[in-house]
Write a structure and sequence with these properties.
Family (chain A): Belongs to the adrenodoxin/putidaredoxin family.
Distance between the termini of chain B: 65 Å
Structural class of chain B: alpha/beta
Number of strands of chain B: 25
Protein name (chain A): 2Fe-2S ferredoxin
Largest sheet of chain B: 5 strands, parallel
Number of domains of chain A: 1
Structural class of chain A: alpha+beta
GO molecular function, one term (chain A): metal ion binding
Oligomer: heterodimer
Number of strands of chain A: 5
Number of domains of chain B: 2
Largest interface: A-B, 17 and 25 residues
Keywords (chain A): 2Fe-2S, Iron, Iron-sulfur, Metal-binding
Order of helices and strands of chain A: EEHEHEE
Helix content of chain B: 10-25%
Cofactor (chain A): [2Fe-2S] cluster
Shape of chain A: globular
CATH topology of the largest domain in chain B: FAD/NAD(P)-binding domain
């Protein structure tokens, strides 16, 4: 079991620093759900297929993340409240090198 | 008034399979769905995506799963009210229910099964100040009647298939079509993208990218929109339009069901999972992704199981005095309401000399 610390700022602006497992094939959206940092039904609606943008978050740390693929880019092109640092949590796998990652959940739309 | 035995709210995989299990018990079903086609998320969000955890299907596309279910339930002749959202429920003195849709269609049944998934799919509304003031006064999130746009100036926003396809369609109907998208790239069928380019080149579609609609203006009704190009104030365009159609896809919302007096937890309906998936209101069941109970998993295969047990309970409720034992389809076959009968071929008894 190997965990990394990640910090999530929820939609009520509350900061949570949590342990995220790197060995469970989890993505950031799933970590947020497992800690119930956003109500069920308001995040990960499509299940993680980059098809709903309900897991959009703003990356606040300069952590290096996997490059954005076409599906994620296309979804963000249609999502609301998109900023330059927007990513979809479901497309970010939790990897050991992401220790210290800090993100803020985008508003529900 | 539509009358049926089990009124199913939601025509996704769980709702569709309920028709089959009910049919084996000779109960008739009618389904209501806010989407214009059956299949729920499987048809609307990911028809081309494979599913790997349907028992005995090593791999099946979500769209094919829906087609198979429709084929499986055909003989039980389900009724459909599509493109309408279940709005209100009334319990009558005899314990039966009347469910009315947002368009006023009334349905009467002794049992209601909510198989509503994540809720009804509603258009995603862009966060533009005042936009609510112009809804149905020039701003429409869904195109219901294209004739509304005949000889009008229309601006469409979005970058997916529906934005492309409606731009193409309305290019021949409206007097002026402008398509605004945040990126230069569109995500849609290739021939739709090519067609929009052709129409742009001959001046039938006015394409503005990368740009966003920033403001909507008007008095009684919509008169103009402010388009911001390249995210630069210096590149703002005030466009006179009669209609603004934002097409940013759909997102599910629990919606009016949340006000039916059902016990809700985590955006889902609490049910009794040790027995029959009934809600706190006797006669109303909740099955599939829409329900919750300890250990709940939102899987299609779990929805199928829940539907099966729920139908047994519904039967008892509708026919409290009838004795019944479950029959295997291999033994009893499947007798449709349409007169068809499927059954296992009889074994031949023949001596070997």
């Amino acid at each position: 079991m190997s965990d990394i610390k990640v910090t999530i700022i929820d939609r009520d602006n509350v900061e949570h620093t949590i342990d995220a497992p790197t060995d469970m094939a989890m993505n950031l959206m799933e970590v947020v759900r497992s800690y119930e940092l956003a109500p069920e039904g308001t995040i990960g609606v499509c299940g993680g297929m980059a098809m709903c943008a309900s897991c959009q978050c703003y990356v606040l740390s300069d952590t290096e993340l996997p490059e954005m693929q076409d599906e994620e880019e296309a979804m963000l092109a249609e999502a609301f409240y998109v900023e330059d640092n927007s990513r979809l949590g479901c497309q970010i796998p939790i990897l050991p090198e992401m220790e210290g990652l800090k993100v803020k959940l985008a508003p529900e739309s | 008034m539509i009358k049926t035995d089990i009124l199913i709210i939601g025509a996704g995989p769980t709702g569709l399979f309920t028709v089959f299990e009910a049919g084996l018990l000779k109960l008739k079903c009618h389904l209501i769905d806010a989407l214009p086609q059956p299949g729920g998320q499987c048809s609307e969000i990911y028809p081309k995506k494979p599913i790997y955890d349907i028992p005995a299907f090593p791999e099946v596309l979500a769209g094919d799963l829906v087609n198979n279910l429709m084929e499986q339930i055909k003989a039980f002749e389900p009724g459909f009210t599509l493109g309408e959202r279940a709005q209100t429920i009334d319990k009558l003195d005899d314990g039966t229910f009347i469910v009315t849709t947002n368009k006023g269609t009334k349905h009467h049944a002794p049992v209601v099964a909510i198989a509503g998934g994540l809720g009804s799919f509603e258009p995603r509304k862009p966060p533009i100040a005042n936009i609510a003031n112009f809804e149905d006064k020039g701003v429409e999130y869904i195109i219901r009647d294209p004739e509304l746009y005949r000889d009008k100036k229309v601006v469409i926003a979005g970058g997916g298939d529906s934005a492309l396809d409606w731009s193409i369609f309305l290019a021949d109907v409206a007097s002026e079509v402008t398509l605004v998208h945040r990126r230069n790239e569109f995500r849609g069928a290739l021939d739709s993208v090519d067609r929009v380019k052709e129409l742009k080149d001959i001046g039938k579609i006015n394409l503005i990218t990368p740009a966003e609609i920033d403001q909507v203006n008007g008095n009684e009704k919509l008169e103009s929109v402010l388009i911001r190009k390249n995210n630069e104030a210096s590149e703002e365009i005030l466009l006179e339009v009669d209609h603004f159609i934002p097409l940013f896809g759909l997102s599910p919302k629990l919606g009016p069901i949340a006000d039916w007096g059902l016990e809700i937890e985590k955006n889902a309906i609490k049910v009794n999972n040790s027995l029959d998936y009934q809600t706190n209101i006797p006669g109303i069941y909740a099955i599939g992704d829409v329900n919750t109970y300890p250990g709940k998993l939102k899987l299609i295969l779990c929805g199928f199981h829940e539907a099966t047990l729920m139908c047994q309970s519904a039967y008892q409720r509708i026919f409290p005095d009838k004795k019944y034992v479950m029959k295997y389809t291999t033994v009893g076959g499947v007798t449709g309401f349409d007169g068809t009968k499927k059954e296992a071929p009889k074994a031949v008894v023949k001596a070997i000399n």
